[in-house]
Amino acid sequence: MKVDIKGFAKPLIESLIAVIIGILVGAIILAFSGYNPVEAYSALFDGALGSKYGWAMTLSAATPIMLTALTFGLGAKTGLFNIGGEGTVYFGAIAALILTNIWGNILMGLLGGIIAGIAWMAIPALLKVFRGVNEVVSTIMLNWVAYFLALYIIIQKIPNPKDPNKTIAIPLSARFPIIIKGTELSWAFAISVIAALVAYYILWHTTIGYELRVSGYNERAARYAGINPKKTVIWSFVLGGIMSGLAGAIEMMGRPPSYAISQGMANIYGYGFDGIGVSLVGRNHPLGIIFSGIFFGMLKAGATAMQIEAGVPLEMVRVVQGIIVVTVAIPGLLDLLKRVVRK
């Protein structure tokens, strides 16, 4: 099989340039705000990559957002703007908590996340196929429905009787083993990498993957080729639901120390939205998402060191992170907009 080196080199170079620009813009803002950018970035990279602990925390932070990025990326390859990963994560986490407390094993937790993800993503899929509802509108609204419905379930149905600040916990028998003791890195990271590899295989080595890509590139041409666009839409949402549902499940089963949903869903909120940026930085490609997920994990893991060692307040850390993320995501966003305009 011939590999298109130029096809990989161009987006890689564009992303690297965007990373450099984002870092430079962040450095300028830090300097104007009275902080030493060299010290700040040194602390960030040292905290995220300078030790075994730093690497472990980086990979741990990357684990769930790689999966939610696959949800958005699979949608983008099909010509959809699926931003419903956020709500799907909530129900994947809840399903894993309930099923592992009933059956007490990892497989049931993963299965629960998958089923919950497919079920929740089926709603915007059916609305799109049978009623023509734009997926951006439906998924945004359903994210809020999911948020408040999940809060109700967490508070009313599965609270921890010994600690009202969190839900019931994943039992010991259903928790992923920790790879490096004293860190949050578990074998859940392997699930995310395997999922990305499976997504790559589906997209480029199966009939359904070919149909998804053709439909996303040019729906009219896909129709002439005998491809059913309704079928590709449903498959895209189903695969996306599996990924985000798994994200919620493995976050519960592989994140010490609580292995539960905390008050206000603080420990699972935002993963779906972060996944959009990760996917755009990875150019909506499953293999690119692995590396962009690690890059985002580095930014998250190094934030604490940036505050402690360089004295940069949390708000400024988030400003710098946001600037880097937006800058790096621009090339992928432009690709997506070009595809929309072409359609």
Rg over CA atoms: 20 Å
User: What is the name of the CATH topology?
Assistant: ABC transporter involved in vitamin B12 uptake, BtuC
Which outline best applies? globular
Strand content: under 5%
**Class per helix and strand makeup:** mainly alpha
Q: Averaged pLDDT, please?
A: 90
Order of helices and strands: HHHHHHEEHHHHHHH
Just name the CATH architecture: Orthogonal Bundle
Total beta strand runs? 2
The tally of structural domains comes to 1
User: In what order do the strands lie side by side in the largest sheet?
Assistant: 1-2
CATH class: Mainly Alpha
Transmembrane segments: 12-33, 53-75, 87-104, 110-129, 136-155, 185-203, 233-254, 260-281, 288-308, 320-337
Subcellular location: Cell membrane
Protein name: ABC transporter, ATP-binding protein
Organism: Thermococcus sibiricus (strain DSM 12597 / MM 739)
Explain this structure to me?
By secondary structure, the protein is mostly helical. The chain has a single domain, classed as ABC transporter involved in vitamin B12 uptake, BtuC (Orthogonal Bundle), CATH 1.10.3470. It contains 13 helices and two strands, in the order ααααααββααααααα. Strands 1-2 form a two-stranded antiparallel sheet. β1 (159-160) and β2 (163-167) form a beta hairpin. It is globular. Mean pLDDT is 90; it is low at 1-5.
Question: Can you describe this structure in just a few lines?
Answer:
The protein is mainly α. The protein has helices at 5-32, 37-49, 52-77, 85-103, 106-131, 135-157, 188-205, 207-217, 219-224, 229-254, 271-281, 286-310, 314-342; strands at residues 159-160, 163-167. It starts with a helix and ends with a helix.
